[in-house]
Amino acid sequence: MTDALTAFTVSSPTLRALASTEPSTEGTRLVRDVRRSKRLLLLRAVLDAAPGGDSGETADHWALLENAERRDPGAVRDVLHYPATGVWAEETLRRLHAPCGPPADLGHLGALAVAAALRAGIPFSHTLRPLHGRLVLPTLGLLRPDRPGPLALCERSWDPDDPATVPLHALPGGRTALDDLDPYRAPGPAQPAPIRPARRLTPKGHKRWDTQWSGALTLLQRYDTIRAEETVQLLRSVVPLAGGSRSSGATLPAAAGSVLARAQAPPALAATLVHEVQHGKLTALTDVLTLHTADHTPRHWAPWRSDPRPLDGLLHGAYAHLALAGYWQRAALYGARGAWAQHARIRAQVAAVLPTLRAHELLTTAGREFTDAMGAAERAMDDLPPPGDQHTAARRAVDRERRAWCEAHPELASFAQG
To answer: Tens of pLDDT along 141-173?
Structure first.
């Protein structure tokens, strides 16, 4: 666990492959390597900032992690690179450096260490303090002690058959978890309602998700096999959104490898997964490569939203929708009902904003190459156009939406021109 952030270089072929949104071996490897290096750097920063130095509880937790790593590095890697661990690490580092506010939750490092030790199968003895009568062990689930106070744990403390043990729910296929347990599966209550995670689901809720997940993956495998494999490779967890959420899905940079999603029918969930995985890919790329130097002022028109967007938000949206346009085109070729209309509408939206992106004066050289490759991927869709005049009709509809947006935001009309 001594890795430093690697000095990544992104070759032109890899950059262009990522820009197309099409899955590639090199692109997937880059995304996973960037996430791993960033997480190790963040964990090192937490350890360096934690009080106590080489003594105290934090040092004991870290020592248990190191013991587990000596036996089974993969077990420790799975725990430390779990998406929710990133949310905890960022929040903890922020609190450690804040002059006031709530204290850092360094006790959660102990939960990570115990989870890693249990997965590694090493003998150990460690004491943790449950919160509100429960102790979450990331990647495993939670324990419900039968008495209050500190809980002594050892290698025999995790028994999936014990009623006091609640395992984390594995979605069909076993490679992705449905996480409704981890306290850090999403940022805290200050987050807006559209990305508020659901509380713990009932068995009926888990079964519903199993059905929807299996259906969504079946559709992805049928229509776009390579993208289905990319989805499974890059997603460690899906976090259910609370009822009433306005958003169908969300991706948070701190929780790399996770998607927050609303329960929805398989066709909609498949599209949500395609869309959100792209956000994760682009976030990883921009962690090591600067695509533009624009600020965060919201001024640009995005056909998929009513509010003005900063350049970065416009780029993210266009990138995710480019992937969706490709997905629906493939689905249409396999006869999926309504897919041509979806493809035509989304492609028209992307085509409407690509000129703004490609001509932006604050793009870097890499950013220009990236957006040019996005444009090439959009134009390549001409090889398999929708029947009739659907594409033309979709472009006209988007132009009407542009005019309506300019009327609603006259001061920003110049930022909506194609």
So the answer is: 999 998 889 999 999 999 999 999 999 999 998
Cβ atoms of 272 and 261 closer than 8 Å:
yes
Q: Which string of DSSP letters, residue by residue, matches 326-368? A: HHHHHHHHTT-TTHHHHHHHHHHHHHHHHHHHHH-TTB-HHHH
Distances from the Cα of 364 to the Cα of 273, 284, 352, 370, angstroms: 29, 17, 21, 10
> What is d(CA 406, CA 412) in angstroms, rounded to the nearest whole number?
7
Q: Are 262 and 249 in contact (CB under 8 A)?
A: yes
At 56, list the tokens. Answer: 């105290």
Q: Is the pTM of this model over 0.70?
A: yes
What is the gyration radius of the CA atoms in the chain, in angstroms? 23
- Which alpha helices (DSSP H) does 224-265 contain, by range? 225-234
Contacts of 273 (CB under 8 A, 6+ apart): 216, 220, 231, 235, 249, 259, 261
Query: Pairing between strand 151-154 and 135-137?
Result: unpaired
Distance (Å, whole) CA 1 – CA 73:
9
The token pair at 417 is 């021109």
Per DSSP, the three-state class of 277 is helix
> Of 159, 153, 123, whose CA–CA distance to 141 is shortest?
159
Q: Where are the strands (E) in 162-234, listed by range?
A: 165-167, 169-170, 177-178
Type of residue found at 350: V
CA dist., res. 251 & res. 259, Å (int): 5
Identify whether the C-beta of residue 4 lies closer than 8 Å to the C-beta of residue 362: no
DSSP 3-state of 101: coil
pLDDT per residue over 174-226, tens digit each? 899 999 999 999 876 555 545 789 999 999 999 999 999 999 999 999 999 99
Residue 411 token pair = 């001061």
Check: CB of residue 357 under 8 Å from CB of residue 314. yes
Residues 395/400/406/412 CA torsion (nearest 10 deg): -10
- Rounded CA-CA distance 154/161 in Å is 17
Q: Looking at residue 136, what DSSP letter applies?
A: E
